[in-house]
Amino acid sequence: MTVLPKMRLITQAYQQIKKEDPQTALTLNALKCLVRNGEIPSKKSGRKTLINYDTLIEYLNA
Q1: What is the domain partition of the chain in residue ranges?
Q2: In angstroms, rounded to a whole number, what is the distance separating the alpha carbons of residues 38 and 36?
């Protein structure tokens, strides 16, 4: 069975992080900058930018 990646919009990923850790110092703008600079891989789907939530969490844990 193939495990599908947890693809989220940037704002959805930020909201999920904020829900799990209300005291996080990460801001939505900082997350957008990480994606824009290519530090977090992303995929475009039309006008939307998707990121793999698990990859984001791995990056933040490193």
Answers
A1: 7-61
A2: 5
Question: What is the spatial distance between Cα 59 and Cα 43, in angstroms, rounded to a whole number?
Answer: 17
Segment holding 33, helix H or strand E: helix 28-36
User: Residue 51 in contact with residue 42, Cβ under 8 Å?
Assistant: yes
pTM for this predicted structure: 0.89
Contact yes or no for 40/62 (Cβ under 8 A): no
List pLDDT tens digits, range 2-43: 889 999 999 999 999 999 999 999 999 999 999 999 999 999
Q: 24 CB contacts (<8 Å, ≥6 apart)? A: 17, 18
Task: Report the DSSP beta bridge partners of residue 52.
Answer: 7
